[in-house]
Amino acid sequence: MKKKECYLLGKITRRHGLAGNVILKLDTDQPEIYKKLESIFLEINGLLVPFFIEKSSWSKTDALNIAFKNSSDALVDQSLGKDVYLPLSSLPKLTGNQFYYHEIIGYNILDENDNDCGVIRSVNDQTAQSYFITNLDGKEVVIPIIKDWILEVNRNERFIKMQLPEGLIDVFLVPSKKDE
Q1: % helix / strand / coil in the chain, to the nearest 5?
Q2: Segment 58-107, tens digit of pLDDT
Q3: Are the beta carbons of 119 and 108 closer than 8 angstroms?
Q4: Prediction pTM value
Q5: What are phi and psi of 177, to 5 degrees?
Q6: Quick one: which H or E segment has residue 173?
Q7: β-strand 83-87 against 108-111: which pairing, if any?
Q8: Which structural domains are found in the chain, ordered by start?
């Protein structure tokens, strides 16, 4: 399994108890869909290595207590602090205006008048407000991801139409003093 064929699910954060269990901290808005995991991939030395799960239970609302099949101290030690991945093919298909951040990279952002607001280069979800980072005419444009602003997600034509506040895009296109 290649990393580009997977998505980050979370991280093994610590041991739990004396029976060789670990805590998997989930990085998802829908932790409930991961209750019955059979296997996960851990990134070890740059490779994705499969680990098979014997049983799991909730530790917190966003963390699973996991027991690996054929667990040993060495296996647990090897898993600690590692990122956890699952195949992209395991994600449920989204429809309508819902989307996964990884799937919309390369999409165009259009305003409600079909004006180009840039191509999505990345998504920053590491802050309280997630946002698209687009490239428009060689300039970086930051657009907050606000559900009520999204009018349409067109998967066939690869664009997201948004109702943006007047002047938002202009803020990023104004020449700076160093550009003059």
Answers
A1: 20, 45, 35
A2: 888 889 999 999 878 888 888 999 999 999 888 888 888 988 888 899 99
A3: yes
A4: 0.68
A5: -55, -40
A6: helix 168-173
A7: unpaired
A8: 3-90 (2.40.30.60), 101-172 (2.30.30.240)
Please say whether the beta carbons of 24 and 64 come within 8 A.
yes
Residue 104 CB contacts under 8 Å (≥ 6 apart), including other chains: 120, 123, 153, 160
* 123 φ, ψ (degrees, to nearest 5): -125, 130
Tell me which residue of 130, 170, 127 sits closest to 149, measured CA to CA.
130
**Residue in the structure block whose two tokens are 């060789």:** 20
Q: What are phi and psi of 82, to 5 degrees?
A: -90, 145
- Residue matched to tokens 């580009």: 4
Query: From CA 126, how far away is CA 115, in angstroms rounded?
Result: 28
The residue written with tokens 């409600």 in the block is 112
- 55 contacts 35 by C-beta, under 8 angstroms: no
List all residues 6 or more positions away from 105 whose beta carbon is below 8 Å from its beta carbon.
120, 121, 122, 123
Do 106 and 32 touch, CB atoms closer than 8 A?
no
Joined together, the tokens standing for residue 156 give 């066939």
